[in-house]
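Hi there, hope your week has been kind to you so far. Would you mind checking whether the C-alpha cells look sensible for this chain? I owe you a coffee for this, so here goes:
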Amino acid sequence: MELSVYGRKVFAATGGKPFDPSLPAIVFVHGAAADHTVWKLQTRYFAWHGHSVLAVDMPAHGRSEAPPISTIEGLADWLIALLDAAGLEQAALVGHSVGSLVALEAAARYPDRVSALALLGCAVPMRVNDELLSSARANEHLANQLTNAWGYGRAAQRGVNTVPGMWMMTGGMRLLEDAGDGVLFNDMNACHTYDGGEAAAQKLTCPTLSIMGERDMMTPLKQARKLAQQISGARQVVITGAGHIMMDETPDATLDALRRFLPAPS
C-alpha cells in the first residue's frame, strides 16, 4: 500500500489483506536500516484476526522515498502524519529499537491518537557505541557487521532457527546492505542524540507493553527494565535467550506477547 506523507511516497505492508481503516488499527515501526519485512509473522497474524495493519517503511527505507528524517521527534510527527494519510483517528503503535523510540515519542506527544503502545528492544537513553557510530558515519561495511553481530543473540549466531536450513545472520546482513548510504548512521545518530525518552515515558496514558530480550546487547535488559518501570502500569515480557531482534529470533514468543496485549476484537 502506498501513502503520501509530507508530499513523499511511503510504503506500508498490510499483512496480506486490504487495509480497512474502520477496523482497529496497528502500525508497526521497524528498527535501524530495516524495513517492513522484519514484521512478517506478526503483521499477517493481526491482519487475519480482526485488525487493520500497516507495517511502514520509514522515509528512505525500503520502498519509501528519501530523504530520511534525522530526529526521533521529527519521526514521531511524521508517524502521526502517516495516520492522517491512512484515515486513522487512532492506532496502536508497535515499535522496535529506533522505531520504539519513535512510537514512544509519538504516544507522548499525541495521546489522543495512540490507543496502545508496544515497545520492543527499547531503553533510554539509547546510546550507540562510538566505533559503530563512527563506522556508520563513514558508510563502512564494518558498521553493518557490528550491527548484525550485536543485534542477534548467541543462539541465533549459532544457527538456531525455527525454519530448518535458514540462518538469520545472513538475512540480517542482506537487509542492512540493502539500505542506502547514510541510512544506518541517520538512524543510529537519531537514537544516540535523543534525550526525551524519560520525559516521554512519564507522560504516557495509554496501555503499554515492553518486550525485552534476555540477551539483548543493544538495549540491555537492565536498561529496558529501568524504562518500563517509569511507565505507569506498563506490562513487561522478557523473552528467554532472545537478543535485540526478537521478531526474527523468537517470532512465536514475540507474537504471543503482542497478541495477549492486543487481542482480536470481539
Remarks:
- Residues 2-127+194-261 form a domain with the Rossmann fold fold (CATH 3.40.50.1820).
- The first helix runs from residue 40 to 47.
- The chain has a mean pLDDT of 94.
